Amino acid sequence: MSRYLIDKYQALEAYTPGEQPRDMQYIKLNTNESPYPPAPGVVEAVREQAGRLELYSDPVCTELRDALAARYGVRRENVFVSNGSDDILNFAFMAFGGPRAFFPDISYGFYPVYAELHGIEAHSIPLRQDFSIDPSDFMALDGFIAIANPNAPTGMALGVAQIEDILSANPDHVVLIDEAYVDFGAESCVPLTAKYDNLLVVQTFSKSRSMAGARLGFAIAHEALIADLEKIKFSTNPYSVNRMTLAAGIATLKADEVCMENCRKVVETREATVARLRQLGFEVLPSKANFVFARHPHADGGFLYRQLKARGVLVRHFENPRIKDFLRITIGTPRQMEALIEKLGEILSGTGV
Ligand code: PMP
Prior knowledge:
Structural class: alpha/beta
Bound molecules: 4'-deoxy-4'-aminopyridoxal-5'-phosphate
Strand content: 5-15%
Helix content: 25-40%
Strand order of the largest sheet: 2-8-7-6-5-3-4
CATH architecture of the largest domain: 3-Layer(aba) Sandwich
Radius of gyration: 20 Å
């Protein structure tokens, strides 16, 4: 930290993203990327735009927003896009977050960072003992609410009816539902945006649409909320989505069935992986995401993480005391998961478990 950093940021603790190592070829199951390549047509679309990089991108992203509106049965005015859903979450905390923000104690690690960044009083609400969200804890709260559904890193999801109860109990505050992982088997709240003007649904192209490296997120909400987000975007960086990413997003939506089929494959692999992990003695939380959250009664989470890493398999481990026994394991291809199970078997037998 330099002596020039202004006071309000001195205590800020930045988010720690998952490792992106360059030292060796890992089986990379640590940042919830898709194991499948971008949709057909994406590479060509990107290449075409790469030859036109002297020109700015479309700041209102008309074509992409229209394609998203058609895909989700809403109007262009109900759609916002920006540089990854992290960008949108940041804008949402900035726009709607004061003076208080509520989110589960175990959830996406970026929420408390945004709260701190924008000087918002953060209230974390404990998950139940079984790591589920208790909707009754989110009734009539006096501030902005952010819930990841499915939640991360647990993978557990609430139903739409439960979210609707939260929305109707908090009519004077924005309720952000972060659906980064919704395409892997959870129910989306997008249809509720027609009924609740306080609902902001945020999704991403990073996971279900194989575009993590392109950085593209979107939000669907009542047009007044979208206008507020546009105001923030146009007050920071109007060209937050570059030409290549816009083109990739449009091409991806044209081949959306391929992406949704990839999601079905991931779900199938997830279910097979859960069964294998349970055979090895793991407790696995019920996941509706492209990752599972698992712990072993006789092996420390940090130990398993390090042992897997030494064997070329990268998973995510969190130091937070409540979840330090767990590993978050991204679902890769069946072959990658086979390798994971094999290595875990080796490690566990080595410890005499
Ligand atoms: N929300 C949740 C719950 C996530 O896990 C992630 C991925 N780290 C994001 C949002 C951000 O995704 P992106 O910025 O790649 O769209």
